[in-house]
Specification:
By secondary structure, the chain is α+β, with helices and mostly antiparallel strands. The chain has 3 domains: 96 residues, 2-Layer Sandwich (Alpha-Beta Plaits); 100 residues; 135 residues, Rossmann fold (3-Layer(aba) Sandwich). The chain has 10 helices and 13 strands. It has a 5-stranded mixed sheet. The longest helix has 28 residues. The two termini are 40 Å apart.
Length: 356
């Protein structure tokens, strides 16, 4: 029997349907939580190879400890302590290592690495030790690393660097760093355009001050309808060189992130991790290329606000898709818009289209 154009078109979209694999998209978002970026090591040894080996061993340990703090509650960690992994024990936990940058000499290795851990083996190990694993992500938050008047250009640049290189985008509450253009005192009307681009409903201003051997950061969160003073974080500068200042500023950034993450985990543990909803939307397209773009946008959003994606039906110029999302609907729309897809309400209900 001769195939009709409609049959051929349907076959194409059935193939696209099979390729979508919504479960894989959701897993990709979860797996991203298990990638720990911005792991900084500085190790010395008798020779270059031994120094690098020591650097990688330190990165495994530091990355694992950071991951454990990321996906467990402070109460669990205080009660059970940090799990100890040594040597070959990391073979079952680490999937891969990416070197972001490195410097080496005959006896020293300095590196910034990304350690990708195995969700299944890490999760199983923690649950066996009585931990509750929390690896559900929520909507991102914009962070503006700014400084008080009179701060040196070098310190201001280093403050921004510890944020951009810190790997905070993989946290449960992804922290997206505002462009350098966002400066000044905390103000939502100034921050709003940058927050919208980051699919965030709010912005955190982290204003650093360095006085003598002490570094502090004042934390203020602003949104459309609220302003919240989150207090101050402090770190001692253990030395007079740039490395000591960098370590202190990195500690400030970690403290700010920890505060934000722990608030989210406290809600998630008791099952009230912010508003969640489920939406059924008509995905409208003119051709397979546009359908692929809509699917790619949903897959990418599965790293942050979207989960449990399902394709209910596929037709010539449209498909019916459903998915869950965390946060507000405007955050969902902003996240998809970053991927080139609009989410709008029409006479048909929610619709997804490729942005023109």
């Amino acid at each position: 029997m001769k195939a009709t154009p409609w049959a051929a078109f349907t076959a194409l979209f059935l193939a696209a349907l099979c390729a979508f694999a919504p479960g894989a998209a959701s897993a990709q978002g979860r797996d991203n939580v298990y990638a720990v970026s911005g792991v900084y090591v500085d190790e010395t040894a008798n020779n270059s190879a031994a120094a690098q080996q020591a650097g990688f061993a330190a990165a495994y340990r530091l990355g694992f400890e950071r991951l454990v703090r990321r996906i467990t509650s402070p109460a669990d960690l205080a009660a059970r302590g940090m799990p100890v992994v040594e040597g070959a024990g990391f073979d079952l936990l680490v999937l891969s290592v990416d070197v972001e940058e490195e410097r080496r000499s005959s006896t020293r290795y300095i590196g910034r690495l990304t350690i990708r851990f195995n969700p299944e083996t890490v999760g199983a190990r923690l649950r066996q030790q009585g931990f509750t694993v929390i690896d559900t992500r929520t909507s991102p938050v914009l962070v503006a690393p700014v400084s008080v008047s009179g701060t040196s250009e070098e310190t201001a640049a280093l403050w921004r660097e510890v944020w951009t290189q810190g790997g905070f985008g993989n946290e449960l509450v992804p922290l997206r760093i505002a462009p350098a253009e966002l400066q000044g005192a905390p103000a939502w009307d100034v921050a709003a355009p940058f927050a919208q681009q980051a699919a965030s409903a709010g912005a955190i201003y982290a204003t650093v001050r360095v006085q003598g051997s002490t570094a502090t950061a004042q934390i203020v969160e602003v949104g459309a309808n609220a302003r919240r003073d989150r207090g101050e974080v402090t770190a001692r500068i253990q030395g007079t060189d740039a490395a000591a200042l960098r370590a202190a500023l990195a500690s400030l950034a970690d403290q700010v992130s920890t505060q934000v993450q722990n608030e989210w985990k406290a809600r998630a543990v008791v099952g009230t991790g912010g508003p969640r909803g489920r939406i059924s939307a008509s995905a409208l397209y003119n051709d397979q290329r546009q359908w692929e773009q809509i699917k790619e946008a949903l897959e990418a959003a599965a790293q942050t606000v979207v989960s449990e994606i399902r394709i209910e039906a596929v037709g010539r110029q449209g498909a019916l898709v459903s998915f869950s999302f965390s946060g507000q609907e405007q955050q969902l729309a902003a996240e998809l818009a970053r991927r080139g897809v609009t989410l709008e309400n029409s006479s048909m209900g929610p619709t997804l289209r490729v942005a023109r």
